[in-house]
Specification:
21% of the residues lie in helices and 34% in strands. By secondary structure, it is of the alpha+beta class. The strands form 4 sheets. Strands 1, 2, 3, 4, 7, 10, 11, 12 and 13 form a 9-stranded mixed beta sheet that branches. A 5-stranded mixed beta sheet has the order 14-16-17-18-15.
């Protein structure tokens, strides 16, 4: 078996993705600077977007699915008067409108987009169609038709209107919500058409823009040998998951993929879960008495069964 290039590096890096760079390129650059042998990211940002791009390294990649489910906060600017093929400023204009709006008209239109809403994703998106990415098909000139999907928008507010041509919004939303689709649909509902001019992701779960670092800062730290100090612990992505301290013996069992007894060890609600009710799949973050990550486990018939086990090997 070929050895994976790089060293075992474990933890999360909160990157402030620069404008014009794909998430994949940003990840590759950070991975190279850290000389990490395994890496992934939680939630793609479009090339024209900036802001929080959480990067996972080593064993932290096993926690990516839990962060992907976290709420995200965006601040973005919508330009009125035109729709584009990509629903942002990158694509060519497909149709225009001379209509412009007052702040009151915009605000009154927002409630219809709050809560569970059906969205048709942009044709230029990473959704797969017959095994191919929609954006690849769209770039080849194919007519991409995507089915509407359920999206969750928890909050949307108008921040400011710098002029009659644009408006700045802030949105808190769940997994699978497209800001570009919101801009397109809001413009259509108001009759003025619109697309995203600029977008910054302010937060993904516990990771915020305030704590994010630039690639330039990472490179400077890598040059001085201090890059790994910028990493946040694996457990940071699991803040919303109940934690349970286990003994050394239980930790050894979990790391071998074996279940441990849950009875008498958990809260009343979790005891009910262990009896097989509707919350039986509730994940639990198991850690050693010293705080080291051991596993993520799920309740099953009075036991905690590991679903993901953490192994902090020092070998590549």
């Amino acid at each position: 078996m070929a050895r994976r290039k790089g060293e075992p590096v474990h933890g999360w890096l909160v990157l402030d993705k620069p404008h014009g760079m794909t998430s994949t390129r940003a990840l590759a650059a950070a991975r190279r600077m850290l000389n990490a042998n395994k890496a992934g990211h939680a939630g793609t940002l479009d090339p024209l977007a900036t802001g929080v791009l959480p990067l996972a390294f080593g064993e932290a990649t096993k926690t990516v699915p839990y962060l992907v489910e976290a709420r995200k906060t965006y601040r973005f600017t919508v330009r009125w008067g035109a729709e584009t093929t990509t629903d942002d400023a990158e694509g060519p204009v497909t149709r225009t409108s001379e209509q412009r709006l007052s702040q009151g008209e915009i605000v009154r239109a927002l409630p219809q987009f709050i809560g569970e809403v059906m969205q048709t994703p942009p044709a230029f998106s990473a959704i797969k169609v017959d095994g191919e990415r929609a954006y690849d098909l769209a770039r080849e000139g194919e007519d991409v038709v995507l089915e509407p999907r359920l999206a969750h928008i928890h909050r949307i507010e108008l921040v400011e209107t710098p002029d009659s041509e644009q408006a700045v919004f802030e949105m808190v939303c769940g997994k699978g919500t497209y800001v570009r689709a919101f801009a397109r649909d809001l413009g259509r509902s108001l009759g003025c058409l619109g697309h995203v001019k600029a977008l910054t992701r302010l937060a993904v779960g516990p990771f915020t823009l305030k704590a994010a670092i630039s690639l330039e800062t990472l490179e400077e730290s890598a040059t001085s040998g201090a890059a790994k100090r910028l990493l946040k612990p694996l457990a940071t992505a699991l803040d919303d998951i109940p934690a349970l301290a286990v003994t050394d013996q239980e930790a050894a069992q979990l790391r071998l993929g074996q279940a441990i007894l849950a009875r008498g060890r958990v809260s009343p609600r979790e005891e009910a879960v262990s009896e097989g009710d509707a919350f039986a799949a509730l994940p639990v973050f198991c850690r050693s008495r010293g705080g080291d990550p051991v596993a993520i486990a799920a309740f099953e018939r009075g036991e905690l069964r590991p679903t993901r086990v953490f192994n902090f090997s020092t070998r590549g």
